[in-house]
Specification:
Blueprint (H helix, E strand, L loop, with lengths): L17 H18 L3 E2 L5 E3 H7 L5 H6 L1 E4 L5 E4 L4 H10 L8 E10 L11 E10 L4 H18 L5 E7 L3 H16 L7 H6 L16 H5 L10 H16 L5 E2 L13 E7 L7 E7 L3 H4 L7 E7 H10 L11 E5 L2 H18 L3 E3 L6 H10 L4 E5 L1 H4 L3 E6 L7 E4 L3 H10 L1
Parallel strand pairs: 1-5, 7-8, 12-13, 12-14
Antiparallel strand pairs: 2-4, 3-4, 5-6, 6-11, 7-9, 9-10, 10-11, 14-15, 15-16
Helix pairs in contact: 5-9, 12-15
The chain binds histidyl-adenosine monophosphate.
Length: 424
């Protein structure tokens, strides 16, 4: 036998029944986006590598270690998108959608990062992202956060998630703070692990994000960017908190929240679950007022976030919050080719007139095996078509989930009978 091929590590198949949970989630997102007047964009999975180098930042983990890049047949360096924000800005600029316009976009789809796979962390994973352009006001940051909170409430997840917020201030405030941090960590350089030492001069703010518990006390005692914010950013951050309080959304200020992508300034936030181990962040984002200009456009304020679909579905499954999967109402079985034709015709009628979920047994197995399959399918009813009954234009109906005698109905009565059953 030929050897079996397997999927690439960190790349998942989404199969039934979990594909039904995905469909449920996607449908809910679509409705939610409409409620907040966000419009869908569908963007390419491949972009020029340069977009992410310029957009996400050369010293980020994403660009340094995780991005999937290759030279295509023309020798151009291309990348599988590791995130959606840079591509969204590229597309909006390319199509002139940011020219003196306010925009609210959302997208859903796979992203790719060469990370070490573990529960909740994959190399192909799905994000749902929301991005808004042209609005510098903190009410936009608040609206985005309120929108996520409302989604968690709908899903029943709100009690299981904590909102963390922080402000990264202006570019200038960050540059000054960067120097303070370097001086602070230089005094303790021997205590830093190899990763943090490597970040010291390249991207010292990322040291604050270290997961190494041995560094926790050192990081806790480090100077805080919040104490060195520029006046405008402070006012912006205070206004955001005021709106969140007015909306009744609980939050924790985490001064060490810096995010792993370079485009953020001012607001950053994450929704975190304590039930998903190390991969607890289910949704994250913030303001990126400098990115549009950095990618060649006119300075345009922007803010957004993305949520990890796998992590949210893991949490929903863990908390038993997923809806019951779509079920089969009626399973049709038949004892001969002629009866099978009749079964197919009745099935079509039940689907189109009553919107019932109907499955036909399209095999030539004997009635006993077909009955077993009907039972296993979870269907509520079985209808049996036999050559004998064809002559009298009748069929037999059996309730599969309750003790009731089998009944004989005329074909003409089939729709009426099930209409009555399902109208109760
Ligand atoms: P991010 O924090 O890199 O931000 O990713 C957002 C979310 O995607 C994470 O919070 C997590 O739920 C999920 N995620 C990230 N990596 C993985 C992975 N390897 N496996 C499974 N899930 C993962 C961004 O990507 C920004 N573009 C978000 C944003 C949009 N900021 C502004 N607008």
């Amino acid at each position: 036998m030929a050897t079996l091929l397997q999927a690439i590590r960190g790349f998942n198949d989404i199969l039934p029944p979990s594909s039904q949970a995905w469909a449920f989630f996607e449908q809910l997102i679509r409705q939610h986006a409409e409620l907040y007047a966000y419009q869908e964009v569908r963007l390419p999975l491949l972009e020029k590598t340069e977009l992410f180098v310029r957009g996400v930042g050369t010293t980020t983990d994403i660009v340094e270690k995780e991005i999937y890049t290759f030279l295509d047949r023309n020798g151009d360096s291309l990348a599988l998108r590791p995130e959606g924000t840079a591509g969204c800005v590229r597309a909006a600029l390319e199509h002139g959608l940011l020219h003196n316009q306010l925009q609210r976009f959302w997208y859903m789809g796979p992203m790719f990062r060469h990370e070490r796979p573990q529960a909740g962390r994959y190399r192909q994973f799905y994000q749902v992202g929301f991005e808004a352009f042209g609005m510098a006001d903190p009410s936009l940051d608040a609206e985005l956060i309120v929108m996520t909170a409302s989604l968690w409430r709908k899903l029943g997840l709100l009690p299981h998630l904590t909102l963390q917020i922080n402000s990264l201030g202006s570019l200038e405030a960050r540059a000054q703070y960067r120097q303070l941090l370097i001086v602070y960590f230089e005094q303790h350089v021997a205590l830093l692990d190899a990763e943090s030492q490597a970040r010291l001069y390249k991207n010292p703010l990322r040291i604050l994000d270290s997961k190494n518990i041995k560094l926790a006390a050192l990081i806790q005692a480090a100077p805080k960017l919040l104490d060195h914010l520029d006046a405008e950013s402070l006012a912006h951050f205070n206004a955001l908190q005021g709106i969140l309080n007015a909306a009744g959304i609980a939050f924790v200020i985490n001064p060490c929240l810096v995010r792993g992508l370079d485009y953020y300034g001012r607001t950053v936030f994450e929704w975190v679950s304590a039930d998903l181990g190390a991969q607890g962040t289910v949704c994250a984002g913030g303001r990126y007022d400098g990115l549009v200009e950095q990618l060649g456009g006119k300075a345009t304020p922007a803010c957004g976030f993305a949520m990890g679909v796998e992590r949210l579905l893991l949490l929903l499954a863990q908390k038993a919050l997923l809806p019951v999967v779509a079920k089969i109402d009626i399973y049709l079985i038949s004892d001969s080719p002629q009866a099978k034709v009749q079964a197919l015709l009745v099935a079509e009628q039940l689907r189109s007139e009553l919107q019932l979920n109907v499955q036909c047994d399209c095999t030539t197995a004997n009635l006993k095996s077909q009955f077993k399959r009907a039972d296993k399918s979870g269907a509520t009813w079985a209808i049996i078509f036999s050559v004998g009954e064809l002559k009298t234009a009748t069929m037999s109906v059996k309730a599969l989930r309750k003790e009731e005698p089998q009944q004989q109905l005329t074909l003409a009565d089939s729709v009426g009978f099930f209409r009555q059953q399902y109208s109760r």
